[in-house]
UniProtKB/TrEMBL annotation:
Keywords in alphabetical order: Cytoplasm, Transferase
Name of the protein described by the UniProt record: tRNA 5-methylaminomethyl-2-thiouridine synthase TusD
Pfam families given in the database record: DsrE (PF02635)
Locations listed in the record: Cytoplasm
Gene3D superfamilies cross-referenced by the UniProt entry: DsrEFH-like
UniProt family annotation: Belongs to the DsrE/TusD family.
Presence of the UniProt keyword Cytoplasm in the record: yes
Length: 155
């Protein structure tokens, strides 16, 4: 979101807690897409007008954090029927397009059987299954995002 009065940018935080099968998980993805597209259009419009007052506006971005049952979205082995949206692939595509991080709470992921190579070795698990583009992080990451952001939306 862009505050035209102070010419600063705030980065909203999407806290996604819904299981991939829940409608809120799909709504979070739709919201993220719409927000990022609108932000991209706003930045393009500002660049087109080349107004010196707007030169201080940074490229709008979005912080995302997967917690609880939403950790299942980061499971590369999660199968999805052809008639359903594959949230894992859709988040990966969005992250690649907009250079987003996809952090997942490590403790909620591990408790749901989702792990990366490091945690697999550390906890003596047979394998890893974290989808590319996602990263297991501690809750301190969420705390830092919450300190930096004025807007928190939970899905």
């Amino acid at each position: 979101m862009i505050d035209k009065n102070s010419m600063t940018t705030t980065t909203p935080l999407l806290l996604i807690t819904a299981d991939p099968s829940h409608p809120l998980a799909k709504l979070a993805l739709r919201y993220a897409r719409a927000y990022l597209q609108n932000a991209k259009n706003a930045v393009a419009a500002d660049e087109q007008h080349n107004d010196s007052d707007h030169s201080k506006i940074k490229k709008a971005s979005l912080n995302i954090f997967f917690y609880g049952d939403a950790a299942h979205i980061a499971n590369r082995l999660r199968w999805q029927s052809a008639d359903q949206i594959n949230l894992t692939k859709e988040w990966q595509n969005l992250a690649e397009q907009y250079e987003l991080s996809l952090p997942v709470c490590v403790s909620t992921a591990l408790s749901r059987g989702i792990t990366d190579a490091d945690n697999s070795a550390r906890h003596q698990l047979d394998s890893d299954n974290l989808a590319a583009g996602f990263a297991l992080v501690g809750l301190s990451e969420l705390a830092m995002m919450m300190q930096e952001n004025n807007t928190l939306m939970q899905f």
